[in-house]
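The records we work with from here on pair a chain with its fold. The integers have meaning only within a learned vocabulary of local backbone shapes. A complete example follows; check for yourself that the lines match position by position.

:::
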Amino acid sequence: MHNVLWSAPPEARPGTHLLVMLHGYGTDEHSMARLFPSIPRGITSAALRGTFPVGDSHGWFLLDPYLQSDTADVLEAATGIFTWLDRTMAGASFSGGSLLGFSQGMAMATTLLRLRPRRFSAVVGLSGFVTENELLAMAEPLPVPVPYFWGRDREDWVINEDAIVNTRNWLEGNTALTARTYPGMGHNIGSDEIRDVNVFLRSYVPRSPLDNKENNRA
């Protein structure tokens, strides 16, 4: 069961596009909720809390300092998110769905894309990585090159060079990639990056019919 913070009340969600936000290792959903004001109109954001305990905080699966993980743990976490997502999409009239993940949340978002590549309109990965998964790799490259925004600082000390190389290779071979770097940002989410994410989402997420009606009235 996932704790969720929403950017909009239930009555304002029908007809909007759902953006699922996944936090990094050792934080929680509140770290992603601060991005709500930066997301374009017509998108409802849902920040989920990971179910793996990390001290007093949370993550998605056990992670070592070299960013290695157990495939079964990663897939179990993905199954839990899909259980929530399927129930949520069935119970509300969202126009579609996309993903945004930070750090380990980027690894989680990419795993969801690998499992259901036709389910998502776009994916945003920030200061993160793609997990190595021989099982999923057997069915790749993905049949649909989904638009993917990858933002990071080249000097990010958290994500090691081997992980960066693996991530770049996977993204270039499986997605319609937009890659941006932000010097001095560190392992963080920067204001320039969020501006570019906003532009990316406006370009690749289908606009809500309700949003178009509001713009026509303006």
Observations:
- The radius of gyration is 16 Å.
